[in-house]
Amino acid sequence: MTAKVSLRGLYKIFGPNDAAMVQHVKAGMDKATLLEKHRHVLGLRDINVDMQPGEITVIMGLSGSGKSTLIRHLNRLIDPSAGEILVDGQDVMKLGQAALRDLRQKQMSMVFQKFALLPHKTVLENAQLPLSVQGADKAKCDAEGRKWLARVGLEGFEDRYPAQLSGGMQQRVGIARALTANTDIMLMDEAFSALDPLIRTDMQNLLLELQKELHKTIVFITHDLDEALKLADHLVILKDGAVVQQGEPQGILLAPSDPYIEDFVSDINRARVLRVRSVMRPVNGAECDGEVEASKNLEDMIALTGGDTNLVYKVTDRDEVVGQLDMKDLVKALVPRVSGQ
User: Fold this and answer.
1) pTM for the full model?
2) CB half-sphere exposure, 270, CA atoms < 13 A
3) Which of 85, 98, 107, 339 could cross-link with 92 by S-S, CB 3.0 to 4.6 Å?
4) How far apart are the C-alpha atoms of 321 and 314, rounded to whole Å?
5) Contact yes or no for 25/82 (Cβ under 8 A)
6) What pLDDT band is residue 338 in, cutting at 50, 70 and 90?
7) Rounded distance between C-alpha atoms, residue 217 and residue 248, angstroms
């Protein structure tokens, strides 16, 4: 599969001589030393990530890890100090102003953490803003704005103003606005971080529900591992501006690459996050006690079996047998791996 967005050897250093500083970083200079010796700040170090069409790529890390800096490179709100940014194979760094404006309007939309709604415009006017900026006629703007507001559960609120809505409702307007733009790529920078926990969960579920139908290429930034594991098809974990580990989330949880990742995932409720497909084995012909879906989480399996580790299940995906689950393997998967063991 050809990547929708590719980052190749991406570096970002903040300071007046950033291009010259890249060589120091390539030679092994770390973030603290670069700041101490040269008064420049390392934002990103040698980022190589492929974001596949129709998938949710989640970029996560602690504060200062570089995740928000990274997402702002995709639409060139920030220019890199070195490296390539490819969208559909085209080098974004080679775009002129007109082509870059076209990229931002027609290929990428963005959902912000603080909603970024215009307070003097109605909910409908905010939702239809991308089409209005593109010069679409009023009838099309109105129809598309209403359609997407209805899809995110805000039908009947079109004439309200942002200040009359709750935080969760305001973020729904932000998502409707991004969907109205009808772009292939959606950038979501800590989009749900400002919301209360219950509303945040609702928004995550809404995003997954819409994604099943729309198959957008979504780049989602978060510092919350539970959120990342819930949403991600591809998970990229950053530390001090560099990729520590990336891959399918279940694989990262089961096989963390270093102690930093092990610490990161140590407190996760593995039974709730891991799926049967992650711990199943190839079919070996053993007698099975039933069938289970590959997408079922391990917590549901424990409830189903009453914790009986002697049971074996045939695993299916869309009515096709894809593997076999031994409950003893499930129990082993619930224990985090520790370095040296």
Assistant:
1) 0.87
2) 21
3) 85
4) 7
5) no
6) low
7) 16
